Amino acid sequence: MKAFYYLFFLIALGACKAKTKSSSQNPTPTMKSEGPKDGSCTAELQGSKQLLIKTEEATGYLYPIVTDGDNLVIVYSYNKNAPEGIADGNHSETIHFEIPKTSNSLNKKDLELADVKLLYGKHCFCEDAGYYEVLNGELSVIKQDSKISFELSFKIDGVDSEIQHISETVILK
Q1: What are phi and psi of 117, to 5 degrees?
Q2: 12, 22, 83, 150: which could join 167 in a potential S-S bond, CB 3.0 to 4.6 Å?
């Protein structure tokens, strides 16, 4: 177990570095991160929520809905800086997943990721834009005192994503 924490710490050094962003008007804790040099990352923890994955009837495309519930929902976002002078140059990616409020640790791999409703979204003016269920990867979550740390590595066949590995800590309030 000590080896896991050591490995988790080393990998966390290479991921987005978190800085706390607090607001008295917004009780949901958000971490603002230093992502890749061409963008920024944020991780948001939403308490007493649940994640629903809906399907658009006309197109069959997936999309997330966060509603009131008994779990914790984590939303991780990466926003790439748009090139100057390009109207359709915006690019962002999101990760949504849900964990039980009472769970102190969680490890899911490949098809088990469906248990946490892991959803990847690519938002851009590009061919592979949209939401995808993640069923190829590994997620580890550790809740300790007032912190939730998670590490995610994933791949979606046929989708070119900027973010394929996340290591983040979000503070519970």
Answers
A1: 55, 45
A2: 12
Vertex 75 angle, CA 53 and 50, to 5°: 45
Structure-token pair, residue 93:
């990616």
Alpha carbon distances (Å) from 86 to 110, 124, 125: 37, 12, 11
Q: How many Cβ atoms sit within 10 Å of the Cβ of residue 40?
A: 17
For every residue of 91-138, DSSP letters joined together read EEEEEEEEEETT-SEEEEEGGGGGGGT-EEEEEESSTT-EEEE--SEE
pTM of the model: 0.77
- Give 95-141 pLDDT, tens digit per residue: 999 999 999 999 999 999 999 999 999 999 888 999 999 999 999 99
Distance between start and end Cα atoms, the chain: 27
Share of the chain above pLDDT 90, in %: 59
Total Cβ atoms within 10 A of residue 20 = 11
How many residues does the structure list for the chain?
A: 173
